[in-house]
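In the laboratory, one determines a bound structure by crystallizing the protein with its ligand and collecting diffraction data. In a computational setting the workflow is compressed into a single prediction: the sequence and the ligand go in, and a structural description comes out. We illustrate the idea with magnesium ion.
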Amino acid sequence: MIWDLQEVRNQLLRNPQLSLDLSPKEIPISEIKLLNREEIELLEEHVQNLGDLVDNWFNLLTISKQTKIDRFLLEKICSCASILIDKTDDAYLQLKSTGSTYVKIVFTGLYATGKTSIIRHLKRTDPLKIYHESVLTAPRPTIGMDSIRLSFNEIPIVLWELGGQEAFRKSYITDPRKYFSHTKAIIFVFDGKDEEKIEESLEFLKEFKSALKKQEAKLNKFGNLPKFYFIVNKMDEGPDESAPFIAEMANRISEILPETSLVNIMQVIYPTSIKIGTSITTFFGRVLEEIIPFRRYINEGLSTLSLIYNFDFSCLIDLEVGRLPLGWQHNNKLEPKKIINQLLDLFEEGLFEYSTFTVDTGKQIKEVNISRLKILKREYVYLYILGDEANIDQLLMKKEKIEELAIRALTPQLRFIQLAFDPNFHKQR
Ligand SMILES: Nc1nc2c(ncn2[C@@H]2O[C@H](COP(=O)(O)OP(=O)(O)O)[C@@H](O)[C@H]2O)c(=O)[nH]1
Ligand SMILES: [Mg+2]
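The predicted complex, in structure-token form:
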């Protein structure tokens, strides 16, 4: 039997429930259509089946060097196989099964709650531009609907903003399918500074929910309703100050969505402020993390490096879209979120041109090493904190070596994600 991986994958994309006679893990190397006899023989010296191949894909570089099999082809096979194997972790499949090759996220809420400002903040591509200039000029009210595209680590994302004026709101409620089909996440924005508007917003949420509910069967055709998130914007005093207010808002929202527990609402409600840009980035990072499971792959690459060099913490940040942390790895003594938030704050001030920072890790002040890496034509920042046992003098001399290795370790991971989302996958050989 010859397995056409692409065909199997395509079938799975069309029908995620499809059951295969054989676990994709066990498909023998010898039965992969993309490989010729010689390639199969060479590969079989290292791996037997797709499971082996995917488990060892980090070593592909070596394998491809030794065997002269095209590295890109091997990565392609692995990327495909991994999606098959990950059938249960099916966010990729869901994404593809919607028939669209981009991730659609819809922002909604009343007028002047800050939707346009938030989207502009995310869209910023110039990492050097300080947010005050680019964001704080007040946008015009959005008429009807607006959409922008951005690419997050080559994964195309489209953000829709639905204008908040009453007349527009009516149209989503009458025909939600037109606006919300193929949507991965709906982000509902409140203006935390305007009490009257909060009441009106909650009313809108109520209508909105019942409209979606009525259309649920149709929206749910592909088995995935959009996930709801709530932003309470204009919390300019910062997340700590706003915590009691957020808890109160969570309570109010859970009254409208009684099927969702308060605990769950607390996980999807976030205070943001365009004056504290990091809160928006952090929030958006979490949303993406939930709807696209890319972090696992990045973390794999980061862990490899950490093991070699005994890092206590490391993190990869995408410089081109909102400075999102793509992944991080840490030892249990440290609080990664706390470190990352401090780093993002420092970035906000444009300080990432330096080569080290100090941060408070929750227990002690630590030095963070910063490297800018160019990987697959995109700019990233790679940060790491050396472990106590690391031989610091030796490591400092090795900074270039670490960077070189980081690029090597992270390139396949980043390419892997790109390939999985590549609509032209099957055209390439
Ligand atoms: N203080 C404060 N003002 C904000 C914030 N976000 C947006 N604004 C202001 O609120 C107004 C409405 O913003 P806009 O983005 O157009 O809201 P939209 O109608 O929901 O798209 C503008 O004057 C923004 O400058 C924020 O976090 N804090
Ligand atoms: Mg707007």
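Residues 87-100, 126-135, 425-429 have pLDDT under 50 and may be disordered. Keep in mind that any predicted model is a hypothesis to be tested, not a measurement.
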